[in-house]
Amino acid sequence: MKAFEKNIRKVEPYVPGEQPGRRVIKLNTNENPYPPAPGVQKAMEQISPDKLRMYPDPTASVLVDSLAEYYGVNKDQVFVGVGSDDVLSMCFLTFFNSEKPILFPDITYSFYKVWADLYRIPYICPKLMDDFRIRKEDYYQENGGVIFPNPNAPTGIYEGLEFVEDIIAHNQDVIVIVDEAYIDFAGKSALELIDKYENLIVVQTFSKSRSMAGMRIGYAISNPTLIKYLNDAKYSFNSYTMNQAALVCGAEAVKDKVYFEETVQKIVETRAWSVEQFKELGFKCLDSQANFIFVMHPEYDAKEMFEALKKEDIYVRFWGSERIEQYMRVTVGTREEMEALFAFLRRYIKGE
Amino acid sequence: MKAFEKNIRKVEPYVPGEQPGRRVIKLNTNENPYPPAPGVQKAMEQISPDKLRMYPDPTASVLVDSLAEYYGVNKDQVFVGVGSDDVLSMCFLTFFNSEKPILFPDITYSFYKVWADLYRIPYICPKLMDDFRIRKEDYYQENGGVIFPNPNAPTGIYEGLEFVEDIIAHNQDVIVIVDEAYIDFAGKSALELIDKYENLIVVQTFSKSRSMAGMRIGYAISNPTLIKYLNDAKYSFNSYTMNQAALVCGAEAVKDKVYFEETVQKIVETRAWSVEQFKELGFKCLDSQANFIFVMHPEYDAKEMFEALKKEDIYVRFWGSERIEQYMRVTVGTREEMEALFAFLRRYIKGE
């Protein structure tokens, strides 16, 4: 090892879901199968070259304003970032500076652990119950902060507002982050609680329900005090994270409520239909309220099935990690994509 | 103070140059006065909605490949990020983990100090000499890493390759980062040295010479070993930082070498002409090799002049900080913009 390598930070890099170059049935990264709102393309085409040569507005006001209007909050209650990964990472850095461990479920979004390690934040991961639900009493213990997704990933299980409020209410001396990447496919958002609890931050994303994973936009909504702390931290890193295209396309996407609701509705319907199909084939499905379904088959090995699907150019997600070795996570695609999936699974399972 | 505020990270936020909403003569943030290469707008218009709904390629290969080809290096020698701020911040995080202080000049890009504080990296800032040049012997002391811009900012002073190599050669046990945001307006790049020194990283940006501050693209070029460390750190933060628009527009910009060289040439010519104008008015100009000029007038107070200019809707940059209280940094705009600046300064100074 060279002398200069001694002080280099070594990390375990996260392995994202595969992005195959060729056209496949891609049900592995929870993308929306429908394109963004029609206005988005137009907004992109109208970005003038003059806008490209200049720094973007560091306050991202066009995007912040549109989100504030949509959610009926003030502009100083919205923070935007490069996908919810950027927003969440900034939240970890800003809010989790206690000596006490933060809490998040053992089975959840895998980046929480990565950011905690990166920022040297101690953590404890209470185990999900056997039915993969969060036990809220696990979050009553002393801690340095709490984060959990609702719906949780990769389970898809959604907990109602009372449950969420109970965790927030038991943790008023620390920051509680509710990661709502999939909330639009589920139920009530914890946004209803931000006026009631000063320690609450709700994080959402454009990557799922708004069909814009490619533009990298996430946001946090909270009270002005916490949002200011986040902005201060962000400005000290990199003042201009949101490029011109993200700003104008994002703002445009938020405006088209009708298109948004139609798209979400189609996915929710396809999800219900897909769950039926899975069950008919003997799969066990968790009760997903997200745009994916977490499934296992008591008689077929998940890894073998995952690989058989891949050979057919049908990509789903498989981790093989503890407690979920027999599960696959399947994104809800278009009805046609799901039909192709089930046609294969019928052959695989029933020999049809 | 609320209990939950105790563990919130408090930072001194960086104050970026103003971005006024209305049309002004904007010579305060070193943007390029010319639009990006014509192909860029077309590339933007051709991004399909399907690309927007999907996650971007986490390896950013279309952009990485175009840079590798342009600079005649391999693909595994290029790292890209959200502006050079993102790239530099990731370099600090990845490479500066020694107990020993890193070194950078006292007068330089103000973010170095901010990132060092953020990541709790100790640092020493050797003083520039009285003529605002770096004294290379200051960088012979024991340290945990070295970073300096060439040309330096906000002085604009460029040091030749021998000088740069001397600093690198004296620091082969640590990582040396040469921040070349303005190199295309100056002279030889330290890129020539990356095969010779394993501890060297060269960072550049699309925000200045490539007229794309609005798209947020920066990059580092080094050997495959150091680039892999950077990518590992980046993937552990946020796998998808570069959105689709940045990827395709960036790749397109790199292809148009003729347009790039013409634009740079125009700015270099306007710079030479502007220096003459400043001198005629009695200003002292440092020998700038960047797209800005660092000036002071022995008889006129910089702060008053800065404010008088602002009243005329001519924005330049002024810090008022130690050793540079009497200096203003003026971005080289178009010839027309500079003529408007000098017309005002002639009135201000000569009462014309």
Description:
Chains A, B: Homodimer. Chains A, B: Keywords: Amino-acid biosynthesis, Aminotransferase, Histidine biosynthesis, Pyridoxal phosphate, Transferase. Two copies of one chain form a homodimer. By secondary structure, chain A is α/β, with parallel strands linked by helices. The first copy, chain A, folds into two domains: 3-30 and 258-350, Aspartate Aminotransferase, domain 1; 38-255, 3-Layer(aba) Sandwich (Aspartate Aminotransferase, domain 2). Chain A contains eleven helices and twelve strands. In chain A, strands 2-8-7-6-5 form a five-stranded mixed beta sheet, with helices on both faces. In chain A, helix 3 (61-71) packs parallel to helix 8 (244-255) and helix 4 packs across helix 7. Chain A is globular and about 60 Å long. At the A-B interface, helix 1, helix 2, helix 4, helix 5 and helix 7 of A face helix 1, helix 2, helix 4, helix 5 and helix 7 of B.
CATH first level of the largest domain in chain A:
Alpha Beta
Number of strands of chain A: 12
Number of domains of chain A: 2
Radius of gyration of chain A: 21 Å
CATH architecture term of the largest domain in chain A: 3-Layer(aba) Sandwich
N- to C-terminal distance of chain A: 57 Å
* SS-based class of chain A: alpha/beta
Order of helices and strands of chain A: EHHHEHEHEEHEEEHHHEEHEEH
Low-confidence stretches of chain A: none
CATH superfamily of the largest domain in chain A: Type I PLP-dependent aspartate aminotransferase-like (Major domain)
Instruction: Determine the most extensive contact between two protein chains.
Output: A-B, 86 and 88 residues
For this entry, what is the oligomeric state of its chains? homodimer
Overall, the morphology of chain A is globular
How big a fraction of the residues of chain A is strand? 5-15%
Characterize the main sheet of chain A.
5 strands, mixed
Read across the widest sheet of chain A, the strand sequence of neighbours is 2-8-7-6-5
Q: Could you please say which CATH topology of the largest domain in chain A applies here?
A: Aspartate Aminotransferase, domain 2
